[in-house]
Design a protein that fits this description.
The complex is a heterodimer. By secondary structure, chain A is α+β, with helices and mostly antiparallel strands. Chain A is built from 5 helices and 5 strands; from the N terminus they run ββαβββαααα. Chain A folds into 2 domains: 76 residues, Roll (Ubiquitin-like (UB roll)); 77 residues, [2Fe-2S]-binding domain (DNA polymerase, domain 1). The termini of chain A are far apart. By secondary structure, chain B is of the alpha+beta class. Chain B has a domain of 151 residues: Aldehyde oxidase/xanthine dehydrogenase, molybdopterin binding domain (Aldehyde Oxidoreductase, domain 4). In chain B, the strands form 9 sheets. In chain B, strands 3-7-1-14-11-12-13 form a 7-stranded mixed sheet, sandwiched between helices. In chain B, helix 10 runs parallel beside helix 18 and helix 17 packs across helix 18. The longest helix of chain B has 28 residues. The radius of gyration of chain B is 27 Å and the shape is globular. In chain B, 60% of the residues are buried. Classes of the chains: A alpha+beta, B alpha+beta. At the A-B interface, helix 1, helix 2, helix 3, helix 4 and helix 5 of A face helix 1, helix 4 and helix 17 of B. Bound molecules: FE2/S2 (inorganic) cluster (2 copies). The site of one FE2/S2 (inorganic) cluster has 11 residues of chain A, from loops.
């Protein structure tokens, strides 16, 4: 059943990869199995859980529902690309400080989704955060501390923004 | 009241809100879950599953699959039969098919397995396998299963009916008498539906058999790696897999909640495939397979009765239950407790007489009867009693809080012996309920409710004052497959005063790497950040029964304290030697031995650790380490009181939880931040089955909720904003006074929610609603009762 392979080029966390892939290969499998970026997880087969969320050209997408060929030419960011120089991104920090993770399985997807949310809305209300992450399921935390973690990051990012504007 | 914090933040013992040590790897995307592991030459397995709930397999034709590029093997029951590996025991001592040779017994049952070089090819090959079935009459309804003309499912066991076991406890006659003499009797049917834990990581494994060494390593999503190793040796010993040749590694686990205790056929098939092929074989189930074939929880059909005086003193409880176990009893209970700890159903109340019986039956549904984040059927018990107390309050026209206060076991009655045989260790039930009532403003809410009712609005207030029973267990009563339910800690102090501690449990998100380190920090004064915690590798960790039933803190947590105390005893001897005084002349404060009366003469635990390897007393063994296998003298009995306020939309039947206050008491707290997290998660897993989740089957045994399209997990939008608080009543028998907390909220929450909804509808004669309380269910009631 294997079909003709297709050449794709993707920039993932700043590194450009060219690969021959089957047209049916899901982006999540390309990231996990071809690039060994296993921080992006799989939690369902119906596009409900959001464990596989990554940023594609800045938009949060469920990478289990994107074909690798659809991502040809795209810029992808995964959880492995969030920290800078070994320093946690404010979202990573927020999840740590506010105890926003337990088993950690949903966490990368949550963080990637939240990253897009804050990029579009730097000062979201609790309601907006809850709706914003409603495509990402967490079975462990009851969401209370995930909301706090995102609020923490929003605060930090705004402060950073202000500091940058001030200097 | 907070537990006393005895160590400074630099040591971070008990009571500190220490940030979790395990977080970094998960936050950087460097967690190591089973599916993240890739071994050289690894093959992938996928499974052919039955479309029928009950059918005879006439033939399996794998020719087309085997002809496909990349397909390495197809394994059927007939192949396993050659090695006598087609059946295996369940943890309850029943039998379960690994792969069928003859009949399938539920929809989605494993029929054959494909091994291929790539997971896409394996999935293609599954589609290419032709199986011919002869459908048989399915038995879906458990009451139908007991009718004399129902098809008998387990003829393989020589059975002539579908009844599995009968279990009873309590004094039948005395209870009978109490019911005859009662002023008031209430009776209620309560169904607690089939649900699924649905941890966000599904189940899977990599079986890696090394044909040269004859050694099998299995990376596996398991909450109980040591028991799995022993069970595998029991099942496959006859084909040369003896226990020292089996290594089970439970890497990072993406949530367990009870669903990763059983040994599923997929694991065993992958192991067989790896042994046959001499290559690593990975099997990862997808979400639909997980929901359709892995162990379910609950499925109890309960008939409950309470007897009481007209003043509202409860005099007796009687419960009769039918338990639907699917085609095999694959619960994961302690072996002497086929209905788990269901006999905690007298709850928080001083009830003189009680009698409980449970009958289990086979049906054509997936096997199980496991926990859903609860200690062996405790949720079923709590739901029954907490509902019944409200049913009685309604009948008597009494406030449900008042009725609870009237019947609570009083603080001075502990240790309390229940009518069904448990000895409750400690509790203060009135204090917890009072606190919850104060926090939510109970009296004010009742006034508001009266006003709203007068305006025809639907507002309800529900209480649940639950008692749990966790921490199995004293080994004289509790075992799994004969293995006693202790747990263990092996603690080693390095020469530079740092430590490594290994445990027989396995965290799935509970934060053991932090909390166990805090316990050792508390006992030895070694900073928690310098205590490395390891679990989940059977080659290195001491034997233990694993993490479920809120048992880690009660058992392994206690083992950590005891091992640390053994180390401290040896440290005292070394300190006496170093300070040239006798042991009695020393006093301990966290991290330091001081000479009494000469406090500037002291040695730190770090000095002592170094001396243990460089300058230990003559005649003493070198080193500083200890092992402890902790066998608790009793279970622990966490408790709490929850109050829920709901508003119901008359037009849509939508129930909106306005507030939910949870007061928990789990004894002394190791890390308040982690305890709060556990309660938030537990409440959400109480809310979920109360409002949304159910595994539903049609009369043919087709599952109607077999994916996340229909099996609804709460998102951040539906989940209420939980308000939590605590009281502290230490366990008198646990070395740290702790009780365990992971499941309290799951156990206690559903009844509070249902009680609130029934309370809202009680003016219209509603006395009970079965969970899940969907908008449609409420809408129907509103119309039937003429509310709208
Ligand atoms: S894996 Fe669940 S949404 Fe992608
Ligand atoms: S932390 Fe476990 S699923 Fe979210």
């Amino acid at each position: 059943m294997a079909t003709q392979k297709v050449t794709v080029t993707l920039t993932v966390n700043g590194t450009t990869h060219t690969a021959e892939v089957e047209p049916r290969l899901l982006l999540v499998h390309f990231l996990r199995e071809h690039l060994n970026l296993t921080g992006t997880h799989i939690g369902c087969d119906t596009t409900h859980c959001g464990a596989c969320t990554v940023l594609m050209n800045g938009r949060a997408v469920k990478s289990c529902t994107v074909l690798t060929v659809q991502a040809d030419g795209a810029t992808i960011k995964t959880i492995e690309g969030m920290a800078e120089n070994g320093q946690m991104h404010p979202l990573q920090e927020g999840f740590h400080v506010e105890h926003g993770l337990q088993c950690g399985y949903c966490t990368p997807g949550m963080i990637m989704r939240a990253a897009e949310l804050l990029a579009r809305n730097p000062d979201p209300t609790e309601e907006e955060i809850r709706w914003g992450i409603s495509g990402n399921l967490c079975r462990c935390t009851g969401y209370v501390n995930i909301v706090k973690a995102i609020q923490y990051a929003a605060r930090k990012l705004r402060e950073r923004e202000q500091a940058a504007a001030g200097s | 009241m907070e537990a006393e914090v005895r160590t400074p933040p630099t040591i971070c013992g008990m009571g500190h809100r220490m940030k979790r040590k395990e977080d970094a790897r998960f936050l950087f995307g460097k967690g190591r879950y089973v599916d993240d592991i890739k071994l050289p030459g690894m093959l992938y397995m996928d499974i052919v599953r039955s479309p029928f709930a009950h059918a005879r397999i006439k033939s399996i034709n794998a020719e087309r699959a085997l002809a496909m590029d990349g397909v390495v093997a197809v394994i059927t029951g007939k192949d396993l039969e050659k090695y006598n590996l087609h059946w295996m025991p369940t943890l309850m001592g029943d039998t379960q098919m690994v792969l069928p040779t003859d009949r399938v017994m539920y929809q989605a049952q494993e029929v054959a397995a494909v091994i291929a070089t790539d997971r896409y090819i394996a999935a293609d090959a599954v589609e290419a396998i032709e199986v011919e079935y002869e459908p048989l009459e399915p038995v879906i309804d458990p009451f139908r299963a007991l009718e004399p003309d129902a098809p008998v499912l387990r003829t393989d066991k020589g059975k002539t009916d579908n009844h599995i076991w009968h279990w009873e406890v309590g004094d039948r006659e005395a209870t009978e008498r109490a019911f005859q003499e009662a002023d008031v009797v209430v009776k209620q049917q309560i169904y607690i539906p089939r649900i699924h834990v649905a941890s966000i990581e599904t189940c899977g494994c990599i079986a890696d058999y090394d044909p040269v060494e004859g050694k099998l390593t299995v990376y596996m999503t398991t909450q109980a790696p040591h028991v799995v190793r022993t069970a595998l040796a029991m099942v496959a010993g006859h084909v040369g897999l003896s226990e020292e040749k089996i290594r089970v590694i439970s890497p990072d686990i993406g949530g367990g909640f009870g669903g990763k205790v059983p040994i599923y056929p997929g694991y065993v098939i992958a192991i067989a495939a790896s042994v046959l092929l001499g290559k690593p074989v990975k099997w990862i189930e997808d979400r639909s397979e997980n929901l359709q074939a892995d162990s379910f929880a609950r499925d109890y059909h309960i008939t409950a009765e309470l007897a009481a005086t007209k003043e509202g003193k409860i005099t007796a409880l009687r419960i009769k239950t039918l338990a639907d176990h699917g085609y095999t009893d694959a619960a994961a209970n302690p072996s002497k407790f086929p209905a788990g700890l269901f006999s905690i159903c007298t709850g928080s109340y001083d009830i003189k007489h009680a009698f409980v019986e449970v009958d289990a039956v086979y049906t054509n549904k997936p096997p199980g009867g496991i926990a859903y984040r609860c200690s062996f059927r405790v949720t079923e018990a709590v739901h029954a009693i907490e509902r019944m107390v409200d049913v009685l309050a309604q009948k008597l026209g009494m406030d449900p809080a008042e009725l609870r206060f009237k019947n609570f076991i009083q603080p001075d009655q502990f240790p309390y012996k229940s009518a069904l045989g448990w000895e409750y260790d400690s509790g203060n039930y009135p204090a917890a309920l009072r606190k919850a009532m104060d926090l939510i403003g109970y009296e004010e809410l009742r006034r508001e409710q009266a006003e709203r009712r007068a305006r025809g609005e639907l507002m309800g207030i529900g209480i649940s004052s639950f008692t749990e029973i966790v921490g199995a267990g004293p080994s004289r009563h509790f075992d799994i497959l004969g293995i006693k339910m202790f747990d263990s800690c092996e603690l080693r102090i390095h020469p530079t005063g740092k430590a490594i501690a290994r445990f027989g449990t396995k965290s799935q998100g509970q934060g053991h790497e932090t909390t166990y380190a805090q316990i050792i920090a508390e006992e030895l004064g070694i900073p928690a950040e310098h205590v490395q915690v390891e679990e989940g590798d059977t080659d290195t960790a001491p034997y233990g029964l694993g993490t479920y039933a809120s048992r880690s803190t009660p058992t392994a947590g206690a083992a950590a304290a005891m091992a640390a105390r053994k180390v401290r005893e040896k440290a005292r001897k070394i300190a006496a030697y170093l300070l040239e005084v006798s042991e009695e002349d020393l006093e301990w404060e966290p991290g330091v031995f001081r000479v009494k009366g000469a406090p500037d003469k002291s040695v730190t635990i770090q000095d002592i650790a170094l001396a243990a390897y460089t300058n230990h007393p003559p005649g003493m063994e070198a080193g500083l380490e200890a092992v402890h296998y902790y066998d608790p003298p009793n279970l622990t009995f966490p408790f709490g009181s929850y109050i829920c306020v709901v508003d119901i939309d008359k037009g849509t039947g939508q129930v909106k939880i306005r507030r939910f206050v949870a007061v928990d008491d789990c004894g002394h707290v190791i890390n308040p931040m982690i305890v709060e997290g556990q309660i938030h998660g537990g409440l959400t897993m109480g809310f979920a089955p109360a409002m949304m989740e159910e595994l539903v089957y049609d009369e043919e045994g087709n599952i109607l909720t077999g994916s996340f399209m229909d099996y609804l997990l709460p998102t951040a939008v539906e989940t209420p904003r939980w308000e939590t608080a605590r009281t502290v009543t230490p366990s008198p028998h646990h070395p740290l006074g702790a009780k365990g907390v992971g499941e309290s909220a799951t156990v206690g929450a559903p009844a509070a929610i249902v009680n609130a909804v029934v309370d809202a509808l009680s003016p219209y004669g509603v006395t009970h609603i079965d969970i899940p309380i969907t908008p449609y269910k409420v809408w129907k009631i509103l119309h039937e009762k003429g509310v709208v």
